[in-house]
Predict the structure.
Amino acid sequence: MFEDKKVVVVMPAYNAAQTIEKTYREVMDQNIVDQVIIVDDASSDDTSEIAAELANTIVHTHEKNRGYGANQKTCYKLALDAGADIVIMVHPDYQYTPQLIPAMASMIGNGLYHCVLGSRILGGYALRGGMPLWKYIANRLLTLSENVLMGAKLSEYHTGYRAFSRELIEKLQLEENSDDFVFDNQMLAEILWLGYQIAEVSCPTKYFQEASSINFRRSCRYGFGCLGTALTFRLAKAGLIKSRLFRQQ
């Protein structure tokens, strides 16, 4: 609990058998997390079996691989069903440190923000943590374009470390978003569309063999999807098009 608010950590998992227990242990070491929800997107390894042995967790396994976005949709639904007031997404590959959970939860629990991101760019942690140079450059170019098109000033849109209030999640049209990786970007665009301010905290990150990543081809598809989302946002804001995600208030 934080200020009588239930804190739930969700972990969208896929082939995370080597790192999920280590991530879970550090999550629980923060002493404010009431429950962990793990959704396994039909992993080919022992992710579900290992998760089932962890205390105070809800484990849900997709019968077939549905995609990263679909995994998150299940995560957030289960978190709301469990009575979460604060929902924090932590990737189970141990790329992001769970030690920021108390800080992120406090920013939401104290009513300061409804969305907090753990940014790899603030503090210069991305390259130092091992982010490939081509991914760093793509991240910076995409973020610049998205800030211009959506009128925001975020340091990055592409972090997988995120915290949300229950109020905010309930207002988002998550089922309208993609089941693929661009789900992350669409979710932030929706939040900006609704007029919520997004906070960021500097987050150390680690890139290593067991950390999840997408290949160059899928990264390109993700990048074009992000630009498409931002452009749709801008055109809908100007009243030039209608969008199922960005509906006029």
